[in-house]
Amino acid sequence: MIVVDDLHKHFGGFHAVDGASLTIQEGSITGLIGPNGAGKTTLFNVIAGVLQPTSGRVTMAGEDITGLPPHTLFSKGLLRTFQIAHEFSSMTLRENLMMVPGNQSGETLWNTWFGRKRIADEERALAAKADEVLEFLTIDHISDERAGNISGGQKKLLELGRTMMVDAKIVFLDEVGAGVNRTLLNTIGDAIIRLNKERGYTFVVIEHDMDFIDRLCDPVICMAEGRVLAEGTLDEIKANEHVIEAYLGTGLKNKVAHA
């Protein structure tokens, strides 16, 4: 579904992404792991159009999407969430979700004067869909709560809910488990699995919690120093000598040699 070919992103002399190539299969939940500074989030940002690549190519279902802006990719069904949730804190959870779909009738001055019935009908439909999403995510009991008042884990669920308000095809989740308690993390995991199996979502997940990765992801891709180091099941990744070296600074061979 997504093919990344020899992608580079440089910040001056620093090569945050340094020739990364990978393929995300449609219908998969792919894990992206690696030590801090491996280039994972920068890779996400380049694929999602937040950053322009220095060189390289990204395609989605065969279409070249390299460097397209986020709003264009959003309309194509490519969405991403952020490590720190971005909610409208003074609005309710329902209102946050209702804001997501673009090209709403109420966005034009003409319709605010002459299309009030159309706007009202759209808002009723959006509210109904938002309530359905909140129920799916098991946070419908706080649908009228201001988003700024809810917990970090609930904000991550709300971000996931945003992807359900549009025709998402592939969703990039950046450290969805950061700062989230185990109970809510399990709820988030359940929702991701259901969206994958029941609605056909493709996910790419950056996460440091290996139990979460093990539960959700196959395959797992490991990055280090801006490059793809290994790909396979989590057990295969854990046993890979190059991965061990990237995380620990020395591989098993070196450890044995100095034992």
What does it look like?
The protein has 259 residues and is of the alpha/beta class. It folds into two domains: 2-87 and 165-257, P-loop containing nucleotide triphosphate hydrolases (Rossmann fold), CATH 3.40.50.300; 90-147, no CATH class. Helices cover 41% and strands 22% of the residues. The protein is built from eleven helices and ten strands. A six-stranded mixed β-sheet has the order 6-7-8-3-9-10, sandwiched between helices. The chain has a four-stranded antiparallel β-sheet with strand order 2-1-4-5, covered by helices on one side. A hairpin with a 2-residue loop joins strand 4 and strand 5. Helix 6 packs parallel to helix 7 (182-199). Residues 251-259 have low confidence and may be disordered. One of its GO terms (molecular function) is ATP hydrolysis activity. Pfam families: ABC_tran, BCA_ABC_TP_C. It comes from Litoreibacter arenae DSM 19593. Keywords: ATP-binding, Nucleotide-binding, Transport. Residues 2-250 form the ABC transporter domain.
Major sheet: order of its strands?
A: 6-7-8-3-9-10
The share of residues in helices is: 40-55%
CATH structural architecture of the largest domain: 3-Layer(aba) Sandwich
Helix and strand content put the structural class at alpha/beta
- Helices and strands, in N-to-C order? EEEHEEHEHHHHEHEHEEHHH
- Look at the structure and name the CATH superfamily of the largest domain: P-loop containing nucleotide triphosphate hydrolases
User: How many DSSP E strands?
Assistant: 10
User: How confident is the prediction overall: mean pLDDT?
Assistant: 89
CA-CA gap between termini: 46 Å
Count of domain modules: 2
How would a textbook summarize the main sheet? 6 strands, mixed
Strand content: 15-25%
Rg: 20 Å
What sort of overall outline do the alpha carbons produce when their principal axes are compared? globular
Number of continuous helical runs:
11
The top-level CATH class of the largest domain is Alpha Beta
Low-confidence stretches: 251-259
CATH fold type of the largest domain = Rossmann fold
